[in-house]
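Predict the 3D structure for this chain.
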Amino acid sequence: MSIADQSAERVSRRACASARLSATTATFGRVVSEQTVQADPPFARRRATESRLAGRREAALRLVAKYRWPLGAIAIVVLAALVVRWSGVRPGWKPLPFLFTLPYALLGRHELTVWMITAFAVSLSGVVFAWRVAFKLVGAPPERRYAAYVAGLVAGMALLGINDYLHSIFSAESDTMIVALCLAAVDCILDRRYRWAFWIGWLAALGRPEVWPLLGLYVLWAWRTIPAMRRQMVFGVVAIPLLWLGIPALTSKSPFSAASLAERSPRELHSNKITGTFGRFFGLNAAPIKIAALIATGLALLRRDRAVLLLAGGVLLWVVVEAAFALHGWPAVARYMYEAASGTCVLAGVFAGRVILDSGEVLGRVSRWVTPQLAGAAAALVLAVFAVSLAPAARGRLSAERIDLASQRARAKEISLLEAVVTRLGAARILACGQPNIPIAFQSILAWDLGTNVGVLYFSAKAEREHPLPIVNMYPHSYGWQFFPSNWQNATQAARCQGLTYST
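Done. Predicted structure below.
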């Protein structure tokens, strides 16, 4: 073979090796030697396996992103079940919402646990909806979407910081559920899902009468703007008073039992009704949150941001309606204004987002030499001051919640002792003796233990004087319960009440 032929063969071999090396680089994304490819076949298999795993991870992430809301709902329910089991707290005195307890009654003694999980999960979703509403109200452009994320974060955290809000969540009360429903209705309006907004607001109206004026204004607007909704709105509006009066008529002595109990509440304001109501409302949010909400409202007025102004107007209207209820004689307790306080939290989140978006424009009016970096630094400084100002309130809230959780666990033991005493004495014997007389905070709990309605346990001293009946007195004390019958009129009544004196 000539020297020229040998040189041509070497060039051909180098070209083939270079081609194989280029193919390997394109396939695996990095340069490896020809000897590595030829001498290490497992390397190629390993890289192929890694490539398949990366594809599967990417497919799983796409699936999670596609079904993020159902998966989030499942996660909230699971978290609610774990927290209910861990905390050991029991629901407060307020009667359970009939629309939930009616189907849950099919579960027997598990009804209470399922209700608590439902109440906690729905209440926790309020944080999500507060985040979403603030996110949308900021209206950040895509390149500055981080401002909307900050707004949502502030709104969600501020919602959990409402005074006694976590107590109501852990107590499985319906008030925090109604907050979530109101925020969800606002979220649907912002998404132009007007039918969803109406029915979610309708559910909230079944929980608090303060929703009625707001829902009425929405119905008037939708009646004119969306004629296709008129039939279902008529059905919904008619159903509200029927359910509010019909359910008490079925479960208690009077259709107006809820109003009667509210008028006799020990939490009624004894000072000026209007200023007292506003004072209770202002006590729900920390001072920096209220100031931020006020600034956000002022900025919305300057910018003519109708959505933010409507939200601020809804907050004000809610408190005004509550003040009117107080003038009527109802208690106007602070938790009845959680919904207004949640609107304040959303407005505070809008403030945080607008600080980021508008800092450059505001500083630009002062000096034309303001750079984007300087505007960003100014926004960060304002938000840092805002966060630091919230630190004392957050520390106080956490301390109060730790103390409250301990006390509620003690109350749960007290409730368990009440159940044990009722089981020992017998529910039928207690009801056969006479009228149970227990503090109002334990009436719904005793009704559950006795297997009767709350209305049966309503005790009136005036009615007792006019129509004397035997009484089964039940009083909690520092180490349990004391039961004793009284006020029997003859030997037959005394015989029925025999053996009901008991103390733990």
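The longest strand covers residues 471-477.
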